[in-house]
Amino acid sequence: MAVVDKAGPRKGGRSFTEIVNDERYRSVFYQVIVAVAVIWAANYLITNTAENLQARGMSAGFEFLTSTAGFSIAWSIIDYEPGDTYFDVYLVGIANTLIISFFAIIATTLLGFVVGVMRLSKNFIICNLASGYVEVMRNVPLLLHILFWFTLSAALPRPKNSLGLGDMFFLNNRGLYVPAPIPGEGFGVVVIMVLIGIAAAFGVTVWATRRQMATGQRFPAFWVGVGLVVGLPLLAFAALGAPLTFDYPSLKGFNFTGGADVPRAFCALLFALVLYHTVYMAEAVRAGILSVSHGQTEASYSLGLKPSWTLRLVVIPQAMRAVVPPMISNWMNVVKNSSLAVAIGYPDLVAVFMQTSLNQSGHAIEIVGMVMLFYMTVSLTISAALNYYNKLVQIKER
């Protein structure tokens, strides 16, 4: 017996039931619903916030950035005067945050590799010394580390009795005083030669790696790279008649004049960030090395490689596949945790912009949003760069 379709034959197209049951259409439908909900929620929050600010007589917008800040900043690596704008304050805060983060990341990475390898040493003293350092540092909050080093720096000698290294570097309870470079005419050429040396060293490294993969012959790319990065600028420096002089600090009265000064808040924050985050870097390095099969080490020894060469040429390159992911988080944490500098008065972005500028201008939403945007941008940049490197060191399927 034949079954009769009461709805009759379709004239074309698909029925509503078939469209709803199709996964492609259904997924698009749900995405559209979510997008509309997000847009509506964002519009509601923005509109509601604007109405509340208007009801309280508070202005909104970024026009305040062109207004005069009217306050001084204790230390800055870029030029700033009390008559500059709030946008200049924002730039000063960014510069101060980036400079402390840069030095902290470099020192954390280098020291972390050293401590991580030390923890795997067969020497009883070295292994336990590194283990004790890791356990002590990571079980104390970072804020306490910062306060400890800042308080300890106050016990340094006064400027008159500064700890000195020759007539160039002086350390006292006010900070560190170092020679200030004064570029002369033609120094820009030296800088260009530095960039050319770095590019040439990178090219030599890539060529040496491909050559070794193809022929098995090693090339001293590291020392050649050092020669290019250092030698080319030195040749240009000598040929141009040394277009760089230094202004050395000297004690005049109760303080130093000349040179460049680094406040003790900077030194204390740098010490705390490096010593604290080094332990996490060291643990990542230790885990990465342990993830490499012991057969790799035995194979390298059977080929006659020395232990130092085995570690540098066989173990570390393979361990980097496991080291890079946690290193991304560690670098980002260094940048974000530098905001704790507000506890000791270091003029970072949070201190000079999200505190002083916010209290004077009253533009809380705009200022907090700009600070969040900065930290998010830096974190995403670090993540993108290291994720790209991580893809390069991963095993390629054939």
| Mean pLDDT figure | 86
Structural class: alpha+beta
Radius of gyration: 29 Å
CATH topology of the domain at 86-142 and 264-393: MetI-like fold
Low-confidence stretches: none
Strand content: 5-15%
CATH class of the domain at 86-142 and 264-393: Mainly Alpha
Alpha plus pi helix count: 12
Distance between the termini: 59 Å
Mass-distribution shape: globular
Within CATH, the superfamily of the domain at 86-142 and 264-393 carries the name MetI-like
Name the CATH architecture of the domain at 86-142 and 264-393: Orthogonal Bundle
SSE arrangement:
Layout lengths: L15 H6 L1 H33 L30 H34 L4 H15 L3 H12 L9 E3 L3 E4 L2 E4 L1 E4 L3 H29 L5 H19 L4 E4 L2 E3 L2 E3 L2 E4 H27 L3 H9 L4 H31 L11 H13 L2 H30 L5
Short précis:
By secondary structure, the chain is an alpha+beta fold. The chain has helices spanning 16-21, 23-55, 86-119, 124-138, 142-153, 187-215, 221-239, 264-290, 294-302, 307-337, 349-361, 364-393; strands at residues 163-165, 169-172, 175-178, 180-183, 244-247, 250-252, 255-257, 260-263.
Folded structure, characterized:
It contains 12 helices and 8 strands. With 398 residues, the chain is an alpha+beta fold. The chain has a domain at 86-142 and 264-393: Orthogonal Bundle (MetI-like fold). The strands form 3 sheets. It has a 4-stranded antiparallel beta sheet. A two-stranded antiparallel ribbon has the order 4-5. Strands 6-7 form a two-stranded antiparallel ribbon. Strand 1 and strand 2 form a beta hairpin. The chain is globular. The N and C termini lie far apart (59 Å). The model has no long low-confidence stretch (mean pLDDT 86).
